[in-house]
Amino acid sequence: MALGDKRGSRGKMLHHVPIHKYGVLYTHMPTILLIRHGENEYVAKGRLAGRLPGVHLNEKGVTQAQELGKALVNAPVKAVYASPLDRTIETAQPIAEALGQEVIKEPGLLEVDFGTWQDKTLKQLRRRKLWRTVQNSPSLTRFPEGETFADAQQRIVGAIEKLSKKHKAQDLIVCVSHSDIIKLAIAYYLGVHIDLFQRLMIAPASISTLHMGEGWARVINYNHGINFGFPEHDSKPKPKRKSNK
């Protein structure tokens, strides 16, 4: 059975729980803000960065990180954790500075180990036979010289559970990580099978909130953007194709 299929007591509903307008619960359990790193040129150009060092935020990503810091400046955050890669540290830094804290590197938040797929364009990867399995049957996927999605999900869930136990009841903590890792975590805590996790989307610099309990968890919000807006598009009409008739 895939890890994401284990629902147990997580499937029970919790009623009459006060919810803050930004998704933070003021009750006696830790709350985790899962934040995806800001944009970088690999994201902008459709390239798989994986665990490559030296992948930095681009201008837009730096702005996104700064906006996150401004948005969370008054939040009662007790700790800021981040995947130890450059782009996640650079996203976490403005948040930590706004809160007067230091960024704590957490290996459990690392990106999926994509093995030899790392540094390839999505256009190149779509031509490979494994691509269809990655998209439609993630539970069967192991990246060449890398890890499985199941391994990655077990890792991120283990990190979240560890950090939850480390902190006190009402603590609010920040974890800056990566798209697939956050998607795998959200899928697990929603009780969604790992084969369906690719249906979830996590935008750069978005916030997803987990409220942790003893043996259960709640997904309070998901893929929340600090600044929502429609992407720019070319308003010029496209030239009509010439008919062969």
Share of helix among residues?
25-40%
| Count, helices | 7
Strand percentage: 5-15%
User: What does the overall shape look like?
Assistant: globular
Number of domains: 1
Q: How would you summarize what this structure contains?
A:
This protein has 245 residues and is α/β, with parallel strands linked by helices. It is built from 7 helices and 6 strands. A 6-stranded mixed sheet has the order 3-2-4-1-5-6, with helices on both faces.
Tell me about this structure.
With 245 residues, this protein is an alpha/beta fold. It has one domain: Rossmann fold (3-Layer(aba) Sandwich), CATH 3.40.50. It has 7 helices and 6 strands. The protein has helices at 41-44, 59-71, 86-99, 122-125, 129-136, 149-166, 179-190; strands spanning 31-36, 77-82, 103-105, 172-177, 207-212, 217-224. A hairpin with a 4-residue loop joins strand 5 (207-212) and strand 6. The chain is globular. The chain starts with 30 loop residues before the first strand and ends in a 21-residue tail after the last strand. The model is unreliable at 1-27 (pLDDT under 50).
